[in-house]
Design a protein that fits this description.
The structure holds two protein chains of two kinds. Chain A contains four helices and seven strands. Chain A is an alpha/beta fold. Chain B is 50% helix and 6% strand. Chain B folds into two domains: 2-74, no CATH class; 102-228, no CATH class. Classes of the chains: A alpha/beta, B mainly alpha.
Chain lengths: 154, 229
């Protein structure tokens, strides 16, 4: 069971400590509608895409589009890192990309609706490389009437 | 991950993130994060446990209604380590033998990979666009000293890794994922090939091949094996 870095096997903790995290001025958390009225998109950083889409490359800050109706059998992962488990995703895509769980929360009325398009970045991006893509994506999300994004790492 | 929270929220899209590494999230300070103690690669916790996954996703989504960020909420549920039913033994002899080849090993696993696909209805193999014999041939060519472009090699190797682990998940007594990963490194010619390839990449004049050799070929947890080669 993983807790803090200090509880992890040292070789893994060492790897994670070496990752340089960017710092930002605080971003105010925006108010919004109740969850039951929001239209929600999933944004993964697992390097996911449809088979046949361009695989991710080192330094790649761009994203891939995953339409809501994408069959699970079409999803592949080209994250460059080898330092996380992939067998969970191989067994059940929802453990990294919970698209079916989001659909169920909508059916239960917990979440208002789900976006027609979902997205994946590849988490090993330099922030400067991803920022223009994220800004562009925000505009697309608004066009899809999305008013919240759930960000899922890997 | 946290950086995207800043970028999107500043453009008017409210965000809530799952956090797998609390120390990283404490530095990046995204608007809203739910810290979970799960294994890296499994942000929703447990494969094939929809109820568990839905609770995690719901807890993440419910943070959206809070405006007192930057905030990190601690998710209360933990995941017990996979039960290890010992007695796992590979049903086909994959121990490297003097006369064996990587190509033969890949071929022997095909029927098990077919079983895996039949059971799950999917495979995550298919980033490189190569079939597995061709991916194996590419790796063998690289081992012989004829190094392909780094991206081509990386995609072929990652596809092979997925193929081996998916195949092993269909063995009659598949054991835990941890055991299957150890099997890949301890008992397969593929694992040995990656360890043999690494120093060739590091010695290459091509910076992309050196990055592959130094960072994205061998997991940090397996690098201790390099000294043995």
């Amino acid at each position: 069971m993983v807790k803090r870095l200090s509880d992890m096997p040292e070789v893994e903790a060492h790897h994670l400590r070496r990752i340089e995290c960017p710092t930002f001025d605080d971003t105010p958390a925006l108010p919004g509608k109740p969850l039951s009225q929001r239209r929600v998109a999933l944004i993964s950083t697992a390097g996911l895409h449809r088979r046949g889409d361009r695989p991710f490359r080192p330094g790649d800050g761009s994203y891939r589009v995953i339409p809501a109706e994408t069959p699970a059998r079409d999803l592949v992962m080209s994250h460059i890192s080898v330092n996380f488990d992939r067998t969970g995703f191989q067994q059940d895509h929802n453990v990294a990309f919970p698209i079916d769980r989001l659909r169920e929360l909508v059916e239960q009325g917990v979440v208002g609706s789900m976006a027609s398009m979902h997205y994946s970045f590849m988490g090993a991006f330099p922030p400067d490389a991803a920022e223009p893509h994220a800004q562009h994506l925000a505009g697309l999300l608004k066009q899809d009437a999305v008013d919240a994004a759930l960000l899922v790492p890997v | 991950m946290g950086a995207l929270g800043h970028f999107l929220e500043r453009q008017g899209i409210p965000t809530a993130s799952i956090s797998l590494v609390r120390e990283h999230t404490e530095t990046i300070r995204p608007p809203r994060a739910l810290w979970v103690t799960f294994e890296l690669g499994r942000p929703l916790g447990i494969p094939d446990d929809p109820d568990f996954q839905r609770r995690v996703l719901r807890a993440t989504a419910e943070l959206l209604e809070r405006t007192d960020g930057p905030l990190i909420a601690d998710y209360p549920e933990e995941v017990a380590e996979e039960a290890d039913f010992t007695g796992w033994a590979c049903p086909i002899n994959l121990m490297p033998q003097a006369t064996d080849t990587l190509e033969a090993e890949i071929d022997r696993l095909a029927t098990w990979h077919d079983q895996s696909v039949a059971r799950t209805g999917r495979t995550t193999v298919g980033v490189s666009g190569l079939d597995m014999p061709a991916a194996g041939a590419l790796l063998s060519t690289a081992l012989a000293g004829n190094l392909p472009p780094a991206q081509t090699l990386k995609e072929a190797v990652d596809d092979l890794r997925a193929y081996y682990l998916e195949a092993a998940s269909a063995f009659p007594d598949p054991g835990t994922s941890k055991k299957r990963k150890a099997w890949l490194w301890d008992e397969t010619l593929f694992g040995k090939a990656l360890l043999d390839l690494q120093p060739k990449l590091v010695a290459s004049a091509d910076p992309q091949l050196r990055i592959l050799g130094n960072l994205t070929l061998i997991p940090a947890t397996e690098r201790h094996r390099l000294a043995k080669v």
